[in-house]
């Protein structure tokens, strides 16, 4: 035993760092294989960002097969495999993609065996073109999955330590043999393990890492987390500190949001409508129907000055959203045709809070929001002319989204790029082993969920909806399976006669 490895406070077969969907799936699989497992979670409760996830991607699942006559066509594993590689311009890692598409259906069965019931299998954003029908939406959404997984790991005998932040990896002769951690009282702990699985959920809550790595250029610093948590890239950084490599690091799953507001906000949903958007210059910058693809929208917003977009909404639009409901859908956050009954109250509160603006004229709106009145009035004039002509000469927006801005009072809603997660980080093999700069596995170290790269190139594949959450659960399970096999193989080798 080296100085590094002596004096462990506790020893387990496997230590899992992080208790979201990927970490709990890993811990469950390892404990069910009969190994001693500790799960260390820095928050007072497990769940992480996985509690917000609305659904999981899977291919050729039993749920899809059961709906084959009514809900399809459902994607085959081969179609999904090709989609990930083509969408990423072949920057995805075929080994990792194959691992995911081959094992995703089993994840659905495993979650079902814990009590998860799926109430929808299909696409996610109804207006988004070319989506694969991969989205499996559980009753009670991600929160229910995490609750059932938490119960299952307790039953399986996993020792769960909450409010315990892992700070580093302990190595011996190049192999990972444990972790250092700190509990909520500030006590430091050293926990030994034959394998460590990193499941810390990426770095969406670490502005410095976002600025350094996010693949959206200088504006990365303006990206806000959609649901701020504690995913600060700890697992990625501790692996980098012992020589791990990255792969396509910095893919951000970004979409629209209003700073400081929940994803269910109706003023944010109104702003998301593909009508009239301008950036800080007071001019349009895109065909607003790009907003129907959340993956593209994150990139489009992130490229604007300050990563900001300003939606101009007139009172006809407000009445339409209140009386007829939303023209677009975004999973459970923005229901298709859902009537926005709180919209007016919300807009007025936003104006009061200084995050939206209201006026009786476009020039007055410009002054209130800090735009050049002449420029904004010209933009609205050109836009209304395009609506009257039924043709958008600037950005070729489909005619059905050309709704004029006519009736006061007018509002401006300030949207910006918000990230649900980062979904690439460490280079891993198809077995989820963390690789070093020579692409050799670091013995005893695995990475899963948002900490592991492989499924994406430079952006999230929203047209395979549920990818990150499906990947989280599947990669956790598969990593544990390989870690268990490696540990049991090593034990068998030791037992074998000389
Ligand atoms: C609002 C919202 C909606 C989403 N919807 C979807 C969706 O519908 N479909 C989809 O595919 N994805 C969705 N996502 C993305 C989601 O992040 C992923 O789907 C996935 O569930 C992430 O799983 P994970 O296990 O990698 O990370 P998490 O579930 O975030 O778990 C990481 C855990 O690690 C813990 N941790 C971090 N550092 C340490 C440390 N040093 N020591 C100990 N513990 C640590 C964290 O506290 C956290 O509990 C959504 C995200 C958000 C925010």
Helices and strands in order:
Blueprint: E1 10-17, H1 21-32, E2 37-40, E3 56-57, H2 62-66, H3 77-87, H4 94-114, E4 118-122, E5 135-138, H5 141-156, E6 159-161, E7 165-172, E8 175-182, E9 188-198, H6 207-213, E10 224-225, H7 234-240, E11 252-257, H8 266-272, E12 277-278, H9 294-302, E13 308-313, H10 315-323, H11 343-353, E14 356-359, H12 362-369, H13 373-389, E15 410-422, E16 433-435, E17 441-447, H14 467-495
The structure holds flavin-adenine dinucleotide (FAD).
Describe this structure in words.
The chain has 14 helices and 17 strands. The chain is of the alpha/beta class. It folds into two domains: 10-251 and 423-495, 3-Layer(bba) Sandwich (FAD/NAD(P)-binding domain); 254-419, Flavocytochrome C3, Chain A, domain 1. The strands form three sheets. Strands 1, 2, 6, 7, 8, 9, 16 and 17 form an eight-stranded mixed β-sheet that branches. Strands 10, 11, 12, 13, 14 and 15 form a six-stranded mixed β-sheet that branches. The chain is elongated. The relative contact order is 0.19.
User: What is the SS-derived class?
Assistant: alpha/beta
Bound molecules: flavin-adenine dinucleotide
> CATH homologous superfamily name of the largest domain?
FAD/NAD(P)-binding domain
- Please tally the β strands and state the result: 17
Low-confidence regions:
none
Biggest sheet architecture: 8 strands, mixed
User: What fraction of the residues are assigned to beta strands by DSSP?
Assistant: 15-25%
Shape: elongated
At CATH level 3, the topology of the largest domain is FAD/NAD(P)-binding domain
Tally of separate domains: 2
Rounded to an integer in angstroms, the radius of gyration calculated over CA atoms is 24 Å
| End-to-end separation | 22 Å
Mean pLDDT across residues: 93
Q: In oligomeric terms, what are we looking at?
A: single chain
The helix count comes to 14
């Amino acid at each position: 035993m080296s100085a590094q490895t002596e004096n462990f406070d506790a020893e387990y077969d496997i230590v899992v760092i992080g208790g979201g969907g990927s970490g709990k799936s890993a811990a469950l699989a390892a404990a069910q294989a009969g190994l001693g497992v500790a799960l260390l979670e820095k928050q007072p409760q497990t769940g992480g960002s996985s509690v917000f996830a609305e659904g999981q991607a899977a291919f050729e699942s039993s749920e899809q097969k059961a709906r084959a006559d009514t809900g399809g066509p459902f994607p085959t594993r081969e179609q999904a495999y090709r989609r990930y590689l083509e969408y990423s311009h072949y920057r995805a890692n075929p080994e990792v993609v194959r691992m995911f598409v081959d094992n995703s259906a089993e994840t659905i069965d495993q979650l079902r065996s814990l009590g998860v019931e799926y109430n929808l299998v299909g696409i996610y954003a109804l207006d988004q073109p070319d989506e694969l029908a991969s989205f499996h939406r559980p009753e009670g959404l991600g929160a229910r999955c995490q609750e059932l997984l938490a119960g299952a790991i307790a039953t399986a005998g996993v020792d769960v330590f909450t409010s315990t932040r892992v700070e580093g990896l302990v190595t011996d002769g190049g192999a990972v043999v444990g972790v250092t951690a700190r509990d909520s009282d500030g006590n430091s702990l050293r926990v030994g393990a034959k394998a460590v699985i990193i499941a810390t959920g990426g770095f969406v809550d670490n502005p410095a890492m976002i600025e350094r790595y996010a693949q959206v250029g200088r504006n990365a610093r303006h990206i806000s987390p959609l649901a701020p948590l504690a995913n600060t890239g700890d697992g990625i950084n501790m692996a980098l500190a012992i020589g791990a490599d990255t792969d396509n690091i910095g893919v951000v799953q970004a979409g629209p949001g209003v700073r400081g507001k929940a994803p269910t906000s109706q003023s944010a949903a109104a702003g998301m409508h593909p009508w009239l958007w301008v950036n800080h210059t007071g001019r349009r910058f895109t065909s607003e129907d790009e907003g129907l693809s959340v993956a593209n929208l994150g990139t489009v917003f992130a490229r604007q000055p300050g990563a900001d977009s300003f939606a101009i909404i007139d009172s006809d639009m407000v009445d339409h959203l209140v009386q007829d409901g939303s023209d677009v859908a975004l999973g459970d956050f923005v229901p298709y045709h859902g009537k926005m009954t709180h919209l007016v109250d919300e807009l007025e509160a936003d104006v009061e809070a200084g995050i939206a603006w209201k006026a009786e004229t476009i020039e007055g709106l410009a002054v209130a929001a800090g735009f050049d009145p002449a420029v904004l009035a010209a933009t609205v004039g050109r836009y209304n002319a395009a609506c009257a002509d039924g043709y958008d000469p600037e950005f070729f927006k489909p005619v059905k989204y050309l709704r004029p801005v006519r009736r006061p009072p007018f509002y401006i809603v300030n949207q910006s790029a918000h990230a649900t997660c980062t979904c690439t980080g460490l280079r891993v093999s198809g077995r989820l082993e963390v690789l070093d700069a020579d692409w050799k596995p670091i013995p005893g170290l695995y990475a899963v969920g948002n900490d592991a790269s492989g499924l994406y190139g430079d952006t999230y594949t929203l047209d395979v909806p549920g990818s990150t959450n499906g990947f989280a659960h599947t990669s956790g399970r598969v990593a544990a399976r390989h870690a268990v096999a490696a540990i049991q193989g090593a034990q068998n080798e030791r037992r074998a006669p000389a």
